[in-house]
Structure formats: C-alpha cells, structure tokens
Amino acid sequence: MIQEGIGCLNLETLYPEYRIRMSADHERGHERDPWNFEIPCGRWKARIYPHGGTRLQASISLRYIKSALSELEAAGATLWQRGDTEASVTFDRDDFRRIARVLRPKKKRVGGGRPFAVKPRVDAGDDGQTGGSDGKDVETGTAPEKDTEK
After folding, report:
1. Higher model confidence: residue 36 or residue 6?
2. pTM tops 0.90
3. Which residue range(s) make up the domain with 132?
C-alpha cells in the first residue's frame, strides 16, 4: 500500500497484526503520517519503519553489531549505515517475514489488554477427581474430602 504521490509504505495497512507507534519526531496533534510509523521489535532494540518506495528500513542498537548484521544480511537485508553500536539495514517488503523472524517485531495484544489468558490448571488424579499435583482443588486451594467408608 504505497500512498499516491508520496512513495511510502503504510505499515498500519500492510502489517495490522503488529504494534505501530509514532516515531519520536512526530508532533502531537498533527495528522498521522505513514512516514512516522514504526514497528518496535523485541530484539536488539530494533524498530522497522518505511524507507521509501517498496523498501523498509530497520535500525538496531547493540554492543556486538557484527553478528547481528550477519544474521540480518542472511535474511535478505542490505547494510545502509553502520556505527560502533548501531546500524541500519534496508530490505524489500517481500522480505519482511524473513527479517521479522530475526528481529521479532511486537504483535498487538488481543482482548482485554492481556496477551495471554490464564486458565486454571485441571489435573485428573487416579481417583478421577480434579485438582493440582498436590491433590488440592485448583480454584479453592483446599484438599478434597476423603471418603472414610469402605
């Protein structure tokens, strides 16, 4: 989805499953500009943002840059600029999934703001009753009553 006349990929429409945030240079109260969209990643303090045309750019920041760059280049990225502890790479949008496997972009949370639903654990013991591994009921935390009649 390239905007007419601008030549910028719109990350919100291309990758709706990922978190999109505005870059630091976006001024509050102004129109949302696709050039200011970025996808934060979980690895190497990385973020992915538009580069122009059908290309995207990722910036990474870490102490050991050489190994990170070799992983990204193996996934299809091209080095754009490099510093002592930072680097930028560019890649085509067709390579996004391969680059995403390396950078681990953060996905949107689904439902109620919690990423994972916590379900109570239910174990079936030898007697067929439900309870935890200690024999106690999972929800109440109490031991089940024993049948003393035989």
Report:
1. 36
2. no
3. 119-150
